[in-house]
Amino acid sequence: MRKLVALPVLSADALSSVAYGPEALLAVLVLGGTAGLAYSVPVSLAIVFLMLAVGLSYRQTIRAYPQGGGSYIVATDNLGRIPGLVAAAGLMTDYVLTVAVSVSSGMAAVTSAVPGLSGDVVPIGVLVIVVLLAGNLRGVRQAGALFAAPTYAFIVAILALVAFGLYDAAGRGFEPVPHPPLHAVEGVGLLLVMRAFASGATAMTGIEAISNAVPVFKPVPWRNARTTLSWMIGLLISLFAGTIAMTHLEGVVPRSDETVLSQLAHRSFGSGGMYVFTQAATALVLLLAANTAYNGFPRVLYQLARDNHAPRIFLRLGDRLAFSNGIIALSVAAVLVYVAFDGDTAALIPLYAVGVFLAFTLSQSGMVVHWWRRRDRHWRQSLCFNATGAVLSALVFITAGITKFTEGAWVAILTVGVFLLVTTRIHRHYARVAEALRLRPQKIEIPSRTIAPRAARDAVAAGAAQGTDTEETDGPLDVTEDAEAEESPEEILHLSVVPLDSLHRASMRTLAYAASLQQPVLALHVSTSDEDAERFRQAWLLWGNHLPLRIIVSPYRAIVTPLISYVESLHRQRPDLTITVIIPEIVVRHWWHRVLHSPLAGRLRHALRPLPKIVVTTVPFHISDGHSTPNGHTE
After folding, report:
1. In angstroms, rounded to a whole number, what is the distance separating the alpha carbons of residues 338 and 108?
2. Cβ-based neighbour number of residue 140 at 10 Å
3. What's the rounded mean pLDDT across residues 215-231?
4. Taking the model in full, what pTM does it have?
5. Which of 462, 460, 468 lies closest to 562, judged by CA?
6. Backbone phi, then psi, for 525, in 5-degree steps?
7. Contact of 354 with 201, CB cutoff 8 Å
8. Could you point out which of 381, 401, 474, 606 has its C-alpha 20 to 30 Å from the C-alpha of 395?
9. Cβ atoms within 10 Å, residue 588
10. Which of 334, 325, 337, 335 is nearest to 300 (CA)?
11. What DSSP designation does 363 have?
């Protein structure tokens, strides 16, 4: 991806936060009346310094993780499994709230221009999330000028707004316009100032997006990513500081019926075309920012599932090569949060700050450990940058957790705790299953000869799907021609196909069951890469190469679709065969464990049902607390 495209696409989340970050800061300070608003400039300067420090910190992350280093990966690599899970919890909370806050803020921009829609904020916002869900399930990607345009339009609109405002302010000697009379409802103190700081710091969300996506840049990726990050930080600071300066000079205060940006646009542009352009650009960039979460959230779930901390259904790619289950989970969570808080941005901000800065803190702390261990060139300078980012992020996280606890931050903290409990229990279950499935040489009798009760070479040769990358081990198979009518058992010609994900006790029992039927057997394995295919082939040879094997390489990580296509190709090329697909099935003791295991048999049965002479059968392997029991079951 070119930098001119990567900048707006990957910076949409961070830059769009200018639409709600400054307003969130002012909404807290205004509680202290005129005395409270006097702190807007110094608090904003502190946030600008925080932006600069964290931005420099993520430049070091890009250098250390040129393959892309999100909070979960960095924290897990350097701090351990539990801190990594906590970082993942904060990151996923951030993604969910990115959708909810971006949609709510976008709706606020729309209702500021069209007040008549203010009563329909919740249903319209839910409809927007549904549209995002549908688009991402169909494989919409953040790429190209179409997705770059809203961010560039927003940048132009805000810079124009600030330029016009400064021009007007220069005509009066930069004398601030008196703001409306304010009545303090809360005393001005350290607590109020810290709450405002934590709320305004939400303008930093999305800063780590570029460090997560280093591989998408053109060569040299890490250098282009660092350059793009620097431009993003510069733009973010300019837009944030310019917005705060304009609110101070124009005497604008937060209102319930109109956003701060809308008020500033009205004062600079009136109600003409530039005002409409500013509001439209704001709404569109917020929509794009919400869509960025649909790339990040499913990938974090994929990484968690890969490490056995989340259900393995999140490893699965849909027909459009998107992580469909993760996309659906994000949409459901975002809708629940959005509806629960009535689409109110101010109510969502306290939750937002906790998740964002929890992930920042653990990521930057992990980088401190990384540099301390590596101690390569310039490690002291990098450690200093990351340590500064970690300390400041921790300060904001603690401040948000304490000062906004009763305003909703407790929900985010509780969510992190529940997430940690659930993911560790899932990992424990998968570890128990892995132990039950582990091959025990003293209990598994390896056949002393090739299992080939019947020769069926032609059946396997005919099974090569056109256009599918498959490979076969040696194994003589032969099937005689069959009549069209089958009126007796002797006339039925069988071929058993056994899909295998790996070689373990359940798959061995399934192979033994298939061979015991005294019919030709073909083992089938789908690998996601050539390296995985070679590893499985070596394991198969170690076992003894007792059955014919086909390996299908599916580089897009899809498993079920290649299996279905292969069986369909077998049926098309040899319609005289009755094909029995025999699947190992893990049977768990508790119903809530079922979602942790792939319902492969059901999906294959549903997909293959329209084809004649296809039988799908399962060989259950029961997992209990102390032992496992294999049984055969046919449907």
Report:
1. 13
2. 17
3. 87
4. 0.81
5. 468
6. -130, 135
7. no
8. 381
9. 17
10. 325
11. H
The Cα 126–Cα 104 span in angstroms is 10
3-state secondary structure of 618: strand
Partners of residue 526 on adjacent β-strands: 552
CB atoms under 10 Å from CB of 380, counted, come to: 11
Helix (H, G, I), strand (E, B) or coil at 579: strand
Q: How do strand 577-587 and strand 521-527 relate by DSSP bridges?
A: unpaired
The β-bridge relationship of strands 614-623 and 628-630 is antiparallel
Q: How far is CA 151 from the centre of its chain?
A: 21
Residues 6 or more apart whose CB falls under 8 angstroms from that of 312 comprise: 305, 596, 597, 598
CA distance 579 to 611: 10
Q: Which residue has the higher pLDDT, 482 or 560?
A: 560
CA distance 580 to 559: 19
What is the torsion angle, in degrees rounded to the nearest 10, for the CA atoms of residue 194, residue 197, residue 198 and residue 201?
Answer: -170
CA 143: distance to chain centroid?
Answer: 17
Q: Give the residue from 347, 342, 394 showing the smallest Cα distance to 366.
A: 394
CB 521 within 8 A of CB 450: no
Average pLDDT over residues 52-79: 87
Considering the chain, what is the average pLDDT of its residues? 82
Q: List all residues 6 or more positions away from 13 whose beta carbon is below 8 Å from its beta carbon.
A: 98, 102, 205, 206, 209, 289, 292, 293
Q: In which residue are the tokens 């803020």 written? A: 105
Q: How far apart (Å, rounded) are the C-alpha atoms in residues 242 and 203?
A: 13
How many whole angstroms from its chain centre is CA 547? 40
Mean predicted confidence (pLDDT) in 150-177: 89
**β-bridge pairing 493-500 and 549-553:** unpaired
Q: Would the pLDDT of 635 be above 90? A: no
Residue whose entry in the numeric block shows the structure tokens 């299953």:
433
Q: Which residues pair with 497 in a beta bridge?
A: 522, 581
pLDDT of residue 588: 82
- The type of residue at 427 is H
Phi first, then psi, for residue 190 (nearest 5°) are -60, -40
Q: How far is CA 49 from the centre of its chain?
A: 29
Q: How far is CA 174 from CA 26, 94, 166, 248, in A?
A: 20, 38, 8, 10
- pLDDT-derived band at 488 (thresholds 50, 70, 90) equals low
How many Å apart are CA 281 and CA 153, to the nearest integer? 6
pLDDT at 491: 62
CA distance between the termini of the chain: 50
Model confidence pLDDT, tens digit, residues 519-528: 888 899 988 7
Q: What is the pLDDT of residue 539?
A: 84
Buried/exposed code over 149-188 (b: 16+ C-beta within 10 A; e: otherwise): ebbbbbbebbebbbebbbebbeeeeeeeeeeeeeeeeeeb
344: number of Cβ within 10 Å: 15
Is the four-CA dihedral 400, 406, 408, 409 of positive or negative sign?
positive
How many other CB atoms are there within 10 angstroms of residue 407's CB atom? 16
Query: Rounded to whole angstroms, how far apart are CA atoms 131 and 149?
Result: 19
What gap in Å lies between CA 368 and CA 371, rounded to an integer? 5
Under DSSP, the state recorded for 447 is: P
Q: Residue 329: is its pLDDT beyond 90?
A: yes
In this prediction, residue 625 carries a pLDDT of: 54
321 confidence band (pLDDT: 50, 70, 90)? low
